[in-house]
Amino acid sequence: MSAERNRARAALWGLALGDALGMPSQTLPREEIRARYGRIIGFVAPYADHPVSHGLAAGAVTDDTEQVMLLAERLIRAPDRFDEAGWVQDLLGWEDDVKRRGLRDLLGPSTKAALEAIAGGASPDEAAKGGTTNGAAMRIAPVGIATPLTDMGRFVDRVEAACRVTHNTGEAIAGASAVAAVVSAGIRGAAFEDALSAALDACDEGQRRGHPAGESDMTGRIAAALSLAQSGATIERIAEV
Length: 241
Hints:
By secondary structure, the chain is mainly alpha-helical. It is built from 13 helices and no strands.
């Protein structure tokens, strides 16, 4: 097995493991996480009647990982052209399956609103013009795995295509582009620190795509977050920013 294939597998495993660790705390404020779980250092079952994770067992993944794999399957089926209509049906079919399983971990607000608008006759371009939540970045890793950073314009084209039907905004596409660029660079052997400049460049390009809704300087926000992390700021200090 090639080194790149090993890294791709590791990226997906790491994503799923991190998702499973965070599952019991998703959507909860920090104070409630501390009160209910203390410090989460392993796989933990969600508390009874959790608003989103109810019904999941310790170590289970959430919609984050499931939608990542859904996008990966879409890219494998049509590697040369992103099938937006097919992607809409993938997402709707996935949510129907989640409901059949009796779970609450359904589509996020931007994705749900966009798909309902498309079902009502809206064009994909218009349906997702308010999508500024994190769903695009959440599931974008397969695009980074599949696409090298040899041509930044083409790279962000592929990110944008995967975002457009649910998160067609500069904020969402910029954030997804940054995440995908780090993944792409890492798959091809770059250390995280060396991938950051490519991530910021991709973020700049992504900001110019889609509708101008939400944050207008995602690159600046990411740079500020990196600066805080590198300064050794405490969680309390970060929460103040």
